[in-house]
Amino acid sequence: MMPTAFPHHAYDLSAGYRQYVRTLRLVRASSAAYCVLMLMLWALIGLASESWWVSHVLTYLPRVPYLIVPIALIGFAWRFHRKSMWFNLVSIGIVIGPIMDLRLTLASLQTPAKGLNVKVVSCNVQNHQPVFSKVLTEISSLNPEIVALQESTPHHELLRKYFQKWNSASHGRLWVGSKHPVRLIGHCTPDFSHRTCALAVEVQAPSGSYLVFNVHLMTARHALTELSIPNLLNGHAAEVIGNHTHNRGTESGNVRAFVFHHAQRLELPYIIVGDFNTPSSSSLYRDTWGDLTNAFDVAGMGYGYTSPCANHRFWLNNTPWLRIDHILVSPECGVRSCRIGESDGSDHRLISARVTIPVTERRPNGELTQKARLPGKLVGTPKPRFRY
C-alpha cells in the first residue's frame, strides 16, 4: 500500500510549530541566563568592585543600559513563554535596585532629638565652569550654614560677591564658607601627589564648635582612559588601573588618618564633605569610609547621581550616572535629610544635607564641651589587596 500523502499545508504547519518551539526555548534560556548574569554583575560590583580591574571598569560605567535586554525580552516572553517574564522582572528589579544603587530611605531614626541643626552644601564647581552663577543661585536658595567647594579659587568675583558677609577658609582649590566664625586647622597634601586633597576647619557656632573637612580625592577617570583593545590584550590597561587604584587607596587612607588625627586631638564632632570620586558601593570607599554615616545612604531618596553632568558623545547630555560626591558625619551626629541639586552649572550636581550635631554643656570653668565623645581608635585605614 502506498503511504498516505499529507496535504502541503500540513508540512507548513509543522515547520511553523518547530520554529515556534525554537523561539520559545530561546526566550526561556535567554531570560534565565540574563537573570543569572545580573546576579553575577551585582556580586562583582558589590563585592569585588575596585579590587579587580574588570569589576573596577564596571563600577564606573553607566548602568541604565542593563535594562534594555530584560525589557525587550518581556515582550517576547509574553508572546512565547509567559513564565519567563518572571526572570525578566527579577532582572529589572536587580538593575533598578542594587546595581543602580537605589535608596528608599527616610531620615535617620538615630538622629538626636536635641542638637545643633546645620545645613551643609558641597559641590565640585569645576573651576567655576561652565556657568558658576547657576551653582551659586541654587546654593543661595537652600540657605545653608556651611558651604564647601572643590576646584574653586577664593578670589573669584562671584564667590566673593555671594559670600561677602560670610567667614571662610581655603587652601589650594578647596574652599569652606560659614555663617559662623571659622578657624583653619590644617590641610592634607600627600608627598606622592603634592596635591591638597583635604582641608580642615573648626566652625565656632554659638552652642559649640565642630569640625568640617572638605575633601577632593583622585578620580578613576585617568586610568580608565587607558582602556583599548591593544592595552587589554597586552595587560597594560590592567597594570595602569591597578597602580592608579593603589595610589587612590593610599591617598584616601592618608585623608582618613588626617581626619582622625584632628578629630581625636580636638575632641569635636565632625562633618566630611566633598568629591570622593568613588561611589559608596565601591570597595575602595568601604575600606576607608564605610564605618561613617553617609548622609544620602541613611536619609536620601532615589539614586542621588552627582556626576558627570557634561556633554558626552555616547550618553545623554546633563545626565549623571555616578554618586561620587558625599556628606559623611561622625558617629555621634545624625542626618535629618539629604538631597541632590538640579543645576547644570558644573560637571557635578551639588549635594546638601541637614545634620544634627550634639548639643554642648558647660564645664565648671565655663568652657564648652561636647556631650558625646569620639571613638578612641581609627577604623578603616585601608590595606588594599588587588588582583590584576
Averaged pLDDT, please? 85
CATH class of the largest domain: Alpha Beta
Residue share in helices? 25-40%
Range of strand content: 15-25%
**How many domains?**
2
The number of helical elements comes to: 11
How would you classify the helix and strand content by structural class? alpha+beta
Provide the succession of SSEs.
HHHHEEHEHEEEEEHHHEHEHEEEEEE
Kindly report how far apart the N and C termini lie: 73 Å
Strand order of the largest sheet: 4-5-3-2-14-13
Radius of gyration over alpha carbons?
A: 26 Å
| Main beta sheet strand tally, sense and closure | 6 strands, mixed
Q: What is the CATH superfamily classification of the largest domain?
A: Endonuclease/exonuclease/phosphatase
Could you characterize what this model shows?
The protein is of the alpha+beta class. The protein folds into two domains: 8-99, no CATH class; 105-370, Endonuclease/exonuclease/phosphatase (Deoxyribonuclease I, Chain A, 4-Layer Sandwich), CATH 3.60.10. Helices cover 38% and strands 22% of the residues. It has eleven helices and 16 strands. It has helices at 8-48, 53-60, 68-80, 85-99, 132-142, 157-162, 221-224, 229-234, 236-266, 283-289, 295-299, and strands at residues 103-104, 116-124, 146-150, 167-171, 174-178, 182-188, 198-205, 208-216, 270-275, 293-294, 301-302, 325-329, 334-340, 351-357, 360-362, 368-370. It has a six-stranded mixed beta sheet with strand order 4-5-3-2-14-13. Strands 6-7-8-9-12-10 form a six-stranded mixed beta sheet. A two-stranded antiparallel ribbon has the order 1-11. Helix 1 (8-48) packs across helix 2 (53-60), helix 1 runs antiparallel to helix 3 (68-80) and helix 3 packs antiparallel against helix 4 (85-99). It is elongated and about 85 Å long.
